[in-house]
Write a structure and sequence with these properties.
Layout lengths: L9 H10 L3 H10 L3 H11 L27 H4 L11 H4 L3 H14 L2 H11 L10 H7 L7
Length: 146
């Protein structure tokens, strides 16, 4: 019989980390969910080498209504981060108005909790309160520079 366990959305992984009782449990949850979307968000938030080519603050967007299904998730949308990183060709080839519109489109297509995580990421803030750079370095020693 095939494993039909649903992969957790990024916000669900982070919520589990935040609600875990011990540091050891938090690290285990991150390690058990060692997937590119989670790693990309954490790297985007904590790696100072990554600079976002988007205006600081919260963009003007309309979050998905609570309880309404989101049309997208960060499980796929993380692949578009290349359009927002300073120095990457995919980003530099876009007009700023187009880049900003694309980012707002993502914010408006994902669950409101994931949108909040993205806004925190581009502002170089932890994705959720309780997730620290030190915790991420312990869970994924290869992800962030010292």
């Amino acid at each position: 019989m095939a494993n039909t366990a649903r992969r957790l959305d990024v916000y669900e992984v982070f919520e589990k980390v935040v609600s875990a009782k011990s540091r050891k449990d938090k690290i285990k949850i991150l390690q058990d969910n060692n997937i590119m979307p989670v790693r990309d968000v954490l790297q985007g938030a904590f790696d100072e080498r990554i600079q976002w080519n988007l205006p600081p603050g919260t963009p003007p967007y309309t979050p998905v209504s609570e309880g309404a299904p989101a049309s997208q998730t960060l499980l796929k949308q993380h692949l578009n981060f290349k359009y927002y990183v300073k120095g990457l060709q995919a980003c530099e080839n876009l007009l700023s108005v187009k880049r900003e519109r694309m980012f707002i489109d993502i914010l408006e297509s994902v669950d409101s909790r994931e949108a909040e995580i993205l806004v925190n990421m581009i502002n170089k803030k932890p994705p959720m309160s309780g997730i620290t750079k030190k915790l991420v370095q312990e869970a994924y020693p290869d992800l962030l520079p010292e």
